[in-house]
Amino acid sequence: MTRFDQRLVKEALDAAAQAVSEMSFCEVKDRYVAVNGESHHVPERAALPQNQDVRRLNGRDSCTGTPVNDAIAQLLRRDDMNQRLLSLSARVLELEEHVRIRDALDQCANPELGESDSTEGLLAKVLSQLTGRSIRIEDAFGHISAAAGIGSRRPYPRLDAAARLRTAQLWLASRSPVREPRRLVTVALSQGEVLGAICMLETDRPVTAVNLFALTYATRLLEVELSHRRSLAQLELRLGHDLVEELVSGMDSATAGVRTQALGYDISGPQHVIVAEWQPPRTDDSLAVALRRTFLELRSSALVSRRSQVAVAVVRGQPMGAELFAVLAKTLRSATGAIGIGGPSLDVADIPRSFSEALHALRIRSGSTDRYGATRFDELGIYRILKTAGGEPDLAGYVEEWLGTLQGVDDNRGSDLARTLAQYPEPRRQL
């Protein structure tokens, strides 16, 4: 070989020796090169006894007798195995992190007794702790229902209906978080219908794969929770619809007692019928669902149904008109509605009368200059005897309220005080 050849061979052997030395299970003792079938030490030096041992190997591995090329292939396979072990170890750590995240978020779906936060509130709080980012959870209309992290206000513009639909379609197509201004968005869906969304706000730190896993898993939990609520509300509406319809139309007490008990409702004691109508008119169950949620928040026992565009409720106890309207308007995020509250019915047979009174109160309120708010039939005064579209005046009830006691005295004593009172305001005729 020429000097140039020797230099190239030395550089190649040095590089190979360096690579082999980096393997934890290898150690380089010496270096040889085969030229025309003979082994020569690199760099050149005086002959040593081990040179004869190397020549006797004739290109085979000293331990296994394997040809050197095959031995090198085995080393490469071992190196590949090391890489696979490292990759497997990294995957195990990643899976352990996923288990930790799932365990933490699963606690939100099964909160401890006495926990005051809603499921959305718990999800936002835990997800913010896991990712180190601010979280916003929105309802189906884009309103923020829960927030965690820095600040509670919306740090990004609210999307309109068309933009929310586009985001939902992108999420449905890829099942990957959708990038919107200042945030990543995932969507909770049920049969293609948007139930809510989770927004993870951006920071100056890059989003990691662990962050994305936590966000996606939290979205699955939110999807399950909101779907369960929707199904439960729809089931209760279906079960309660026929019962409310029969109660306001007329139902015997014995049957009413059995049917209401099956739904966990106490039909005994004073009952009021409440009707609600909102603008623009609601043609779905949203108003009835919101009214039911309102009674739950007010801790009032009620049966709720829907009649065309009006929500109808049979409520036990004394409903608070102004408070009822305020909570319902907050739930609907709109105050453009009216509520009519019928008088108390002490017997199941009186519930249809309370229903008629509630409708009358609703019509009076809707036709007034102050058309939004709650009106109790008992507080209508002279308006109780005014005829409205679709309703009959309560003249008998009005007379009973003002003259009932006096008429009772006449009946008991045989007197004629009510007639005398009726004639008293008349102007005297001049003789």
What labels would you give this structure?
431 residues; alpha+beta; five-stranded mixed sheet; 50% helix
What can you see in these coordinates?
By secondary structure, this protein is α+β, with helices and mostly antiparallel strands. The chain has twelve helices and twelve strands. It has a five-stranded antiparallel β-sheet. Strands 9-10-8-11-12 form a five-stranded mixed β-sheet, sandwiched between helices. A two-stranded antiparallel ribbon has the order 1-2. It is rod-shaped and about 150 Å long. The mean pLDDT is 78.
Indicate the overall shape. Answer: rod-shaped
What gap, in angstroms, lies between the N and C termini?
157 Å
Structural class: alpha+beta
The radius of gyration over CA amounts to 41 Å
Number of helical stretches of at least 4 residues: 12
> Biggest β-sheet, characterized?
5 strands, antiparallel
Order of helices and strands: HEEHHHEEHEEEHHEHEEHEHEHH
Mean pLDDT: 78
Widest β-sheet, arrangement of strands = 4-3-7-6-5
The share of residues in extended strands comes to 15-25%
Outline of the structure:
The chain is α+β, with helices and mostly antiparallel strands.
Lay out the secondary structure.
Layout: H1 3-21, E1 32-35, E2 38-41, H2 49-57, H3 68-109, H4 119-131, E3 135-139, E4 144-148, H5 161-174, E5 178-180, E6 183-190, E7 193-201, H6 209-249, H7 253-262, E8 271-278, H8 286-297, E9 302-307, E10 310-316, H9 321-332, E11 337-341, H10 351-366, E12 373-376, H11 395-413, H12 417-423
Parallel strand pairs: 11-12
Antiparallel strand pairs: 1-2, 3-4, 3-7, 5-6, 6-7, 8-10, 8-11, 9-10
